[in-house]
Design goal:
single chain, 1368 residues, mainly alpha, disordered C terminus
């Protein structure tokens, strides 16, 4: 306190307050000379040396911890005790102390600005405060300056109105200080920090003043250059395709609250860039199987919601988009299958976001619908809408008061204004279910009101006849499985008794009564008698509540039968029906998720192997679109199952291997890396026993790495996986396969070599074991060859027996039975090597024919090994040179020379259809095939050779769908790849395709297989266009009876396939029109809400996407387009160039408003092709970089009278801005196309930009204009590098610094210093922080003065300025 008394005495003596100087007049005389000197506009030093000295001594003696408190005392004292003239003297004293270093400038400025009575109405205090800050602010560091800027902006915003010129004059003192802080030439703090503070305040908050407006606007506008650098050209108009490689990248993310792009920095972006992206969400919502993509875009997951807000809309804009989509669907509704599938999908989406994500409110949604429908008076599609409302109502009606649903009645009254009763629809059609949806809702509401003792009131007159019909159905017609039964289930789904009776009727029809039995393939294999499944149309006619109840009952019945190990197998009808229910998107929890996480495991736990085999059949032949994480969950279960002793039977092991192979081959390339990154135990995805399955896994990884471009940026996860595979099942690859591997795989296998037994060692073993066989008796042979430590060559011994004696002993059967199924696999593996060695040393075609006949007998006569398994093992062996060709020769002969397999294939393809979901008689066709071509798994042929052997008692497991033809399809996929890897056997490949290519009629992913094959072997097939043509023609031709013309291929390419190649003529070269039609077809399917209608009629896409290879039409046409382009007899570079320049040349016949649609489609196609196709973007970038931009040299691709010279302005590279005015440049088009390509790219593809910058760009950069263009190229993708590849980001930034140094040293002047520095500060603050401190410290001191002055805050090096301290 005494200390403050001393301070008070000093302050009192400043102007002689006390005796004789208390009046203002006397004080005025004392300060008159000072005021005259300053003219009352600026502060000057006080002349009373004693007072100043005392004041300075006082501050110098005080500790820094008390500075703030002392300064607050001074401010309060001055405000309380001084008049306007005395205030001037006090502030001059404070300035003197600050300049002498007694008072820290930061303390003084913050204290003054934080003073609660600092107001514009207090002229002396306000004026002197900002004059002081203006004078001393250079003495504070940039961090303090930023804090002071916040305080100054806050004080300015507190000025609500200015009522006089004098007050305006005072207000401008603060504005001038603000102007000084924001002055780029003064640069007392990074302007990038300042703009964040300025733009954090809404423009409406600032006082209306011309000077303030000018200062703020000029400063903000100076960042337009940075905004254009960071803006991705056309980003709001780009659209992803669900199911392609780049759909889950971070650039698609939106803020779910406002649907805007996630942008953290505050700079003046273009208005379109900051608007809610409603069109993007609307587009995604109508795409089938887009749920995961939408969750990624909105950055949410199931259950990520506020429990207190369950009945409120958490995402109002998302709700609005849903309403828009529903109304659009109503406008386009008709009786087509496409319309039905759209409403089915939208219902699934709506249920997910209302009841699982809880992001929107059902009640609020209906209110919004009601408001919009009232305005537009729309009636079309009303039945579909009420059908959707029924699904929602039955899920919430039990939990909410019936009064909450009054709004549904209002919606009904609006949509159904009829005064007469609505007609009862034709109940033989599925549309009757939708037509009676509102009647079902009314019944549920009435039941709800009745349950709480209230009366809903009389039913509307319009529903009278329909309600009567439903009640009649309830009492009279619940005897057959038809649409009236489904209607009753829907209407009374909340009434347990009624619903139980109706749903039990359907379930009993599937299960059978247990009294009648039907045969299944295999000896003494029978099942419950129901064979006709419930039609898919009827299942889809059930409400979601009924579906969940029905699938729950079905699963309960299956698990109950499994737990009791019921002797009678499941009926074919229930297995087929259950497989149809699993694919319900709206019931994923009870469908595929329950199948993977509960049903499959519970069946295994119950040791019900016949039921397990049924589940494996469903998994192998009936499930479509299994999400990758479910595949990754199933693989460990299957491998665990394979190792169980109870599963050591031939048939079950074969089914387990087939299921695992299908799971592996069915993984989409774009899903592999994301799932690996999320997997906590990736080693569980590997087999500990099967070398073939692990090799298939390696091939899948190699394909995924190549297709997604991860070869350039793979992590340690790959080496860990490959090492674990080698430890579990040591193996090697032939050189022709290794050459096709991505570089990381080659590197690994070159350093981790495994040497198998040589030919001589294997032959020695076989010779020795064969001598043992001949030297021992029957019982000794059985005991010897079934020992665990006996070498795995018994199948080779059997081969020798047949070769030398033409017969097998009955002892062989006894040995095979005791060896067991799992050990037998190793014998087959060794045998695959042995027969190759045998054929290699064979002399003459007669001996080769005999060898093939013996192999054929082992397969079809003795049933020792199945064809699909032997071919798989042969295809995956590691042979070189001549032996490799011999191996392929054996495969070809086994498949084609004997008639057994070809006959089975032709019979199966002729009599069956892959569209099983449309069939009710699949069981009959299935049994007809197996009745004609019986399959034997337990060596029955060997057993039948001897009458002394007992009759087989092997228990056959139920086969509901499979056969050798279907099992062979994934094996054929591998065989074709092995043939492609070795060009000398290409003729054999064509022969195999001619005879067995028809099997691709039943391939569940034919176009994906084609795409992966042509993409992976693109460089390998570059000189073999006839193989590509043969592959595409055969596989798509196999589907000709299933899909209409144009479903897969365009007319131009189909014509190319139909014409035989003529050696004397040049290969077909596609015209510009061909590329245009191909891209236009994709555009029409990408944009259901397109900006322009393109003049092209795309093929019909009315199909059930739940059973299609692709999730939606856009994905379908993207991949089919890529297959065509990959199969063209044209160099990849030529295709890339033709596509890249396709958009600008379209303006003669396409609306200019469609330009972004073209750019988006072309970018999607290019990114989905190998690098050799899309690296044309690098060539184009180099081309425009080499143009002398200052003189506008080079030929323009865009001709317009409005095109200016290449003079830099803030929108020069804004393609859309100039395109709207027909003033676009080719450079801006290249930039827009490059941005679109990199936007759609995977992170692996995007990472290739680093090599491009380092090897191609850096050596040619000479001018500042070129550097600005490089910044435009890289800037928009820094956030993605930051989130997905931090190391790559650091490398990019270092390259930018180095290029800047080069440009600075070669340019006499720099015209865009501020924009360049803003860009580097943006990188610093948003991404790299201090990670590059060493590199920055080396470069900034070498820069020229303008750059060095502005970038000095980034470095710790002393650059001759007291504020040169690094940013933290």
């Amino acid at each position: 306190m005494a200390d403050f008394d001393q301070l008070k005495e000093i302050l009192a003596s400043v102007v002689g307050i006390g005796k004789g100087y208390e009046d203002a007049a006397s004080l005025g005389l004392l300060l008159q000379d000072l005021n005259d000197q300053n003219n009352r506009e600026s502060l000057s030093p006080i002349h009373n040396g004693d007072i100043v000295k005392a004041f300075l001594n006082y501050w110098q003696r005080s500790s820094p911890e008390t500075h703030k408190e002392r300064m607050e005392f001074i401010v309060n004292y001055v405000y309380t005790n001084a008049n306007v003239h005395q205030i001037d003297a006090y502030f001059r004293l404070i300035v003197e102390a600050i300049e002498e270093g007694a008072i820290p400038a930061r303390v003084a400025c913050e204290t003054l600005l934080s003073f609660h009575l600092l107001r514009c109405t207090n002229d002396g205090f306000w004026k002197n405060t900002f004059q002081l800050i203006r004078k001393v602010i250079c003495g504070v560091d940039y961090k303090c300056c930023r804090d002071l800027l916040k305080l100054i902006l806050a004080k300015i915003c507190q000025v609500t109105n200015i009522e006089s010129r004098a007050q305006l004059h005072l207000f401008h003192y603060a504005v001038k200080v603000l102007e000084y802080i924001l002055d780029r030439e003064t640069c007392i703090l990074p302007a990038y920090l300042s703009v964040n503070e300025v733009m954090a305040i809404s423009s409406e908050v600032f006082p209306q003043d011309w000077l303030l407006t000018e200062v703020i606007a000029r400063f903000i506008n100076s960042f337009e250059g940075l905004a254009t650098i960071l803006t991705e050209s056309g980003r709001p108009y780009l659209r992803p395709v669900v199911g392609y490689v780049g759909v889950l990248n971070t650039l698609w993310k939106l803020n779910p609250g406002n649907l805007k792009f996630v942008i953290k920095e505050r700079i003046p972006y273009d208005t379109d860039y900051l608007m809610p992206q409603r069109e993007l969400l609307r587009y995604l919502l109508v795409q089938p199987y887009s749920r995961e993509v939408i969750q990624n875009v909105l950055n949410v997951s199931k259950g990520n919601f506020d429990p207190k807000a369950q009945n409120k809309c958490q995402w109002p804009l998302v709700e609005e988009v849903f309403v828009d989509v529903l109304i659009k669907a109503m406008e386009e509704s008709d009786e087509s299958e496409k319309s039905k599938m759209l409403w089915q999908h939208l219902t699934s989406q709506l249920l997910h976001y209302i009841f699982f994500v809880h992001s929107i409110s059902f009640k609020e949604l209906v209110k919004s619908l009601l408001d919009k429908l009232y305005r537009i008076k729309l009636r079309r599609g009303r039945d579909y809408l009420m059908w959707t409302m029924l699904h929602c109502t039955c899920l919430v009606i039990q939990k909410q008061n019936h009064n909450e649903f009054v709004i549904l009645i209002q919606l009904f009254e609006l949509l159904y204004p009829e005064k007469q009763p609505l007609p009862v629809p034709d109940c033989s059609k599925s549309s009757s279910v939708q037509a009676l949806a509102m009647a079902c809702i009314w019944i549920q509401l009435a039941k709800k009101a009745e349950a709480v003792g209230e009366n809903l009131g009389p039913a509307p007159e319009a529903l009278r006849d329909q309600l009567k019909f439903i009640k009649d159905c309830l009492h009279k017609r619940l005897t057959t499985i038809d649409y009236p039964t489904a209607i009753v289930c829907n209407a009374y789904s909340t009434t347990s008794e009624t619903q139980y009776v109706a749903s039990s009727l359907i379930l009993d029809a599937c299960l059978g009564n247990g009294k009648t039995k039907v045969p299944l393939p295999g000896l003494n294999c029978v099942a419950s008698g129901a064979t006709v499944p419930i039609s898919l149309s009827l299942l889809d006619s059930l409400s979601v509540h009924v579906k969940s109840s029905f699938i729950y009952k079905t699963v309960s019945q299956i698990l109950k039968a499994a737990s009791t190990q019921a002797p009678l197998n499941l009926s074919p009808a229930i297995v087929e029906t259950y497989s149809r229910m699993i694919i319900w998107n709206e019931l994923e929890l009870f469908g595929i998720k329950q199948f993977v996480g509960q049903v499959f495991l519970q069946v295994v736990k119950s040791n019900a192997w016949n039921f397990l085999h049924a589940m494996l059949e469903i998994l192998s032949y009936r499930l479509y679109h299994i999400q990758a994480h479910y595949r990754f969950q199933l693989l460990p279960h299957i491998y665990t199952l394979s190792g169980m002793s109870q599963t050591n039977t031939q048939q079950l092991q074969l089914s387990i291997e087939n299921a695992a192979l299908r799971l592996i081959s069915g993984l989409n390339s774009c899903d592999v890396y994301p799932e690996f990154s999320r997997s906590q135990n990736p080693d569980q995805l590997l087999s500990q026993e099967s070398e073939e399955l692990n090799k298939a896994f390696v091939l899948m990884l190699a394909r995924a790495m190549h297709v997604t471009g991860l070869e350039s940026s793979y992590g340690s996860w790959l080496e860990n996986i490959l090492r674990q595979i080698m430890e579990a099942t040591p193996h090697c690859w032939p050189s022709h396969t290794l050459q096709c591997f991505p570089t990381p795989f080659k590197t690994f296998y070159n350093t981790h070599r495994h040497t198998p037994d040589s030919k001589a060692v294997l032959r020695t073993k076989v010779d020795e074991e064969y001598r043992n066989w001949k030297s021992m008796g029957e019982n000794d042979n059985v005991n010897y060859f079934t020992q665990q430590n006996t070498s795995n060559v018994f199948l080779c011994v059997m081969w020798r027996l047949l070769l030398e004696t033409n017969r097998l002993s009955s002892v062989c059967y006894r040995i095979l039975e005791r060896i067991g199924a799992k050990r037998w696999l190793s014998h087959i593996r060794v045998f695959a090597d042995f027969i190759v060695y045998e054929f290699s040393s064979a002399s003459g075609s007669r001996h080769a024919s005999k060898c093939i006949q013996i192999l054929n007998d082992l397969i079809w006569k003795y049933n020792v090994v199945t064809l699909d398994r032997l071919i798989l093992y042969l295809a995956l062996r590691s042979h070189e040179g001549n032996e490799a060709q011999v191996c392929f020769f054996i495969i070809q002969l086994l498949l084609l020379k004997p008639a057994e397999f070809r006959t089975r294939v032709n019979s199966f393809v002729r009599d069956n259809s892959p569209c099983h979901w449309k069939q009710n008689d699949y069981y009959e066709k299935h049994m007809n095939y197996h009745g004609r071509w019986k399959e034997k798994f337990y060596f029955e042929g060997l057993q039948e050779l001897s009458q002394s052997l007992p009759t087989s008692v092997n228990h056959y497991l139920p086969i509901y769908f499979g056969n050798v033809c279907l099992r062979f399809i994934p094996v054929l996929d591998i065989v074709i790849h092995r043939f492609i890897e070795m060009p000398p056997v290409s003729k054999s490949l064509e022969t195999v395709l001619d005879h067995l290519g028809c099997l691709y009629k039943f391939h569940d992913r034919p176009i994906t297989y084609l795409y992966d094959t042509l993409h992976y072997y693109e460089k390998h097939l570059i000189n073999y266009p006839h193989i590509k043509k043969k592959l595409v023609g055969t596989i798509t031709g196999a589907q000709r009876d299933i899909h209409p013309i144009g479903w897969y291929l365009s007319d131009g390419f189909q014509s190319y396939l139909n014409h035989a190649d003529e050696p004397d003529k040049e290969p077909w070269k596609p015209t510009k029109a061909y590329y245009q039609d191909l891209v236009r077809r994709l555009i029409n399917d990408i944009l259901p809400y397109s900006f322009v209608i393109l003049y092209y009629q795309s093929p019909s896409v009315d199909c059930d996407w739940r059973f299609n290879e692709f999730a939606n039409s856009a994905s379908h046409f993207l991949y089919t387009s890529c297959v065509e382009l990959l199969a063209l007899p044209v160099a990849a570079q030529d295709v890339g160039k033709a596509l890249f320049d396709l958009a600008p040349v379209n303006e003669n016949f396409e609306s200019r408003s469609a330009i972004m649609s073209w750019i988006n489609a072309v970018a999607l196609i290019l990114v989905s092709l190998p690098e050799t196709y899309w690296n044309v973007v690098y060539e184009k970038v180099i081309e425009i970089l080499k143009i002398t931009v200052s003189t506008n040299s080079g030929k323009r691709k865009f001709q317009s009278i409005c095109v200016n010279d290449f003079t830099y302005n803030q929108t020069k590279y804004n393609f859309l801005h100039h395109y709207r005015f027909m003033s676009e440049s080719y450079a801006s088009y290249v930039l827009a196309m490059a941005h679109a390509i990199w936007h759609h790219s995977s992170i692996g593809q995007l990472t290739l930009m680093l090599r491009f910058l380092d090897e191609k760009v850096k050596p040619i950069i000479q001018t500042e204009e070129q550097f600005i263009l490089v910044c435009h190229l890289v800037g928009p993708f820094l956030p993605r590098f930051h989130l997905e590849r931090t190391r790559s980001l650091l490398k990019v930034v270092v390259d930018l610094y180095e290029i800047l140094l080069i440009v600075d040293q070669r340019s006499p002047t720099m015209n865009y210093v501020d924009t360049i520095c803003d860009f580097f500060y943006h990188i610093k603050y948003m991404f790299v922080g201090d990670s590059l401190k060493e590199e920055v410290d080396k470069i900034i001191p070498k820069l020229s003065s303008p750059l060095k002055q502005r970038l000095r805050f980034m470095t710790t090096q002393q650059l001759g300025d007291k504020q040169s301290s690094s940013i933290e």
